Structures are given as C-alpha cells and as structure tokens.
Amino acid sequence: MKSANRNRVALITGASKGIGFALAEGLHLDGYHVIGVARTEPLQPYSFTFVQADVTSSSDVDRIAIYFHENQLPLNVLIQNAGIGYGGAVEELPSDAFFNTLNVNVLAIDSLNRLLLPLLKTSKGYLIHIGSVAGDLAIPFQTYYSASKAALERYSESLRNELKPFEVKVVTVKPGDTKSAFGSNRQKTIQENSPYRARIERSLKRMEADEASGMPTKSVYRVVKRLLKQKHPPVSVTVGLSYRILQGLNRVLPKRFVQWLLYQLYAK
Ligand SMILES: NC(=O)c1ccc[n+]([C@@H]2O[C@H](COP(=O)([O-])OP(=O)(O)OC[C@H]3O[C@@H](n4cnc5c(N)ncnc54)[C@H](OP(=O)(O)O)[C@@H]3O)[C@@H](O)[C@H]2O)c1
Fold first, then answer.
1. Residue-wise DSSP of 2-25
2. Is the model's pTM score more than 0.90?
3. I need a labelling partner for 44 at 20 to 30 A (CA). Which of 75, 157, 198, 216 fits?
4. CA-CA distances (angstroms) from residue 179 to 7, 176, 205, 216, 262?
C-alpha cells in the first residue's frame, strides 16, 4: 500500500492540529507526499511538508498553487479541512462573525478549489470536504457554523456532478464530535447581561463536553483512508456509528420533533 502511494501527492488544509494533523500524519505514513497548510506550524513533531498559509488570504492561496507549479507536483488528493466556529446568539455575535465563518468554511475552500481543480482533473483525484453532522442538525448558538457546513455540503454535491466526467471524486466527510482543539478555538460571545446568557453557557458546556469525550481524530483518518481506495466513493460519509444512526433518524423523523430534540439538548 505504501509503495502504491509513493508518487501520490495530498494537500491538506488546517494541518497544524486536530483532524487535519491526523490526516496529514496518517497519509504520510501511508506513503503519500503530504503537504499540510495552516497559519501556524504544528506544535508537535511532524513528518509532512508544512506550508504556512492563511486560506482566507488570496496571496497565500495563490502561493499554494504556485508551489505546485514550480515544483511540478501532481495533486492526487485535496482535503479541505480548515474550519472555524463561533459560539453565541445571532443577535449578539460580532457583526463580522458570519462572514468570517463563511470565509474560512466555504469561500476559502472555493478559492483554493478553483486554482487546483485543473491538477485534480489531470490526476482524476479526490476532493474531500470536511463537513460536519452540524450541517444536517442545526445547532442553536452555533448558527453560523451549522449554516456554513450545510452550504459546504450543497457546494460539494453540485461540484461532484460538474466534475464527474473528469473522474474527480468529490466527497463530504462529516465527523461527529471529535476530540480536538476546536472547542477551545471556538470564539465565544457571552454578554454579561444577556437574556441568552444561561442558555448559551449550558449549550456550549454540553457541546464542549461532547467534543472532549468525542472520537479520536484518527477515526476521521481511517474513514478518509478507506475512501481513497474507492473508485466510486459515496457522496458523503458520516464518521461515527452513533452519528450515522442520528443522521438516519433525522431523515425519517418529523422536522418539528428533531427541532424539539435539538432545543432540549442545545437551547434550553
Ligand atoms: N472537532 C469536532 O468535533 C468536529 C466535528 C465535525 C467537523 N469538524 C471539522 O473538522 C475540521 C477540523 O477541525 P478540528 O476539530 O481539527 O479543529 P482544530 O483543532 O481547531 O483545527 C482547525 C484547523 O484549521 C486551521 N485553520 C483555521 N483557520 C485557518 C485559516 N484561516 N487558514 C489556514 N488554516 C486555518 C487551524 O490551523 P491554524 O490555526 O494554525 O491556522 C487548524 O489546523 C473543521 O472543518 C471542523 O469544522 C470538527
């Protein structure tokens, strides 16, 4: 397997920590030439090629594409993993919070895709978007995050059919709660005298506890590794059995019931 991947190049955004780091290290061990991108270098030892870049900066994104051209590198796998979240009530979050969320979680992905799709078409490669179960189950007090992941999933599905004749395989991978720094990196707004205050605190506390006891980041890597062996991968994959069951229930239960459940869990 390792030797089969020797000339294959994988680019992973958000590779400095968490899920992206596990993907970068895992695919490197599988024999891929991995290029990992983030704003800050990983704090732990790493063995892939690290390129410092902010995916929301057009000059940084251009630099990533130039790097491929200058080094005459093919691109077999692009994993769009970098992501951010805000926690708080829509009414109270900073006015740029929605734009910032969409910018990292959707718009930056599109900018990089537009530059690198020619390489993926040449290699008939894989384009993997890291979505979230929160794109299907709208989480109150993480409204912008849920909306961004829902948008990403529709974007991914449309692009899949655009690229089908070129044999580029586009997949959304949707992790459930995963142990990473995502919770502590979440930018929270909890105003002192807010009428939402107690509910936001309870909601974020529950979310952070779920993330802290979540799946290891390697679970996402294992799912991606399996996908990269498939000639006809599925449109999307949910990571974690309990989340797959949840997704199944979400499809069959009345919307009003699902909303009630989400209220009990994250908005009461
Ligand atoms: N953890 C979960 O429970 C969970 C569940 C479902 C989906 N996800 C998704 O999984 C992905 C990875 O999240 P994670 O849990 O691994 O969180 P994390 O530990 O906070 O990692 C986020 C990564 O994104 C990078 N990043 C953020 N903004 C960036 C920017 N402007 N330019 C370049 N890189 C940027 C960060 O690197 P720098 O800060 O160094 O730039 C970091 O490497 C995200 O898309 C997230 O939405 C996570």
1. TGGGTT-EEEEES-SSHHHHHHHH
2. yes
3. 75
4. 31, 10, 15, 6, 21
CA-nearest of 199, 194, 193, 188 to 267 is 199
Specify the CATH number of the domain 3-266: 3.40.50.720
User: Is ligand 1 within 6 A of the CB of residue 259?
Assistant: no
Question: Which tens digits make up the pLDDT trace of 140-168?
Answer: 999 999 999 999 999 999 999 999 999 99
Q: Is the C-beta atom of 104 inside 6 A of ligand 1?
A: yes
Pocket probe for ligand 1: among 17, 137, 247, the residue whose CB has the most ligand atoms within 8 Å is: 17
Q: Where are the domains of the chain?
A: 3-266
CA distance 148 to 103: 9
CA distance 157 to 163: 10
